[in-house]
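Here is an idea for our session: we take a single protein and study its fold together. Once you have written the record down, we can walk along the chain together.
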Amino acid sequence: MRETEILKEIQTAFPYYGGRLLRNNVGRLRDVRGNYVQYGLGVGSSDLIGWLPVDISGEKRAIFVALEVKTEKTFPTLGQRQFIQAVKDAGGIAGIVRSTQDVRELIDSYL
C-alpha cells in the first residue's frame, strides 16, 4: 500500500477515538515573483497532526498527536524522529505508523 493510501485510512479511522487529524504537508515552492514560500509546520514535522480528547481527573483535555506515516519500505529522517521525540517529551502522543493497527497500539500504550 502507498503512503497516501495508509494516510487516508488512518485519517478516516481516527474519529473513532473522538479525535481529529489534519494533513501537514511540508515543503517550499516558488511564487510568481520567484521567491520561495515555505509551507507546513516545519522540516521534520509529522504527516498527520491533531488531538485526542482524554479524561484527566474528570476533565476533558486535548492531547497533541503527531503521526509520521511510512510504508514497510520507508523510514523516518533524523528530523522526523527528533520531532516525534519532542512531542513525546512534552506529553503528547507521537510515533511512526504504518497502519491503523499501529495507531491503535500507540494510543492504547499512551492511555
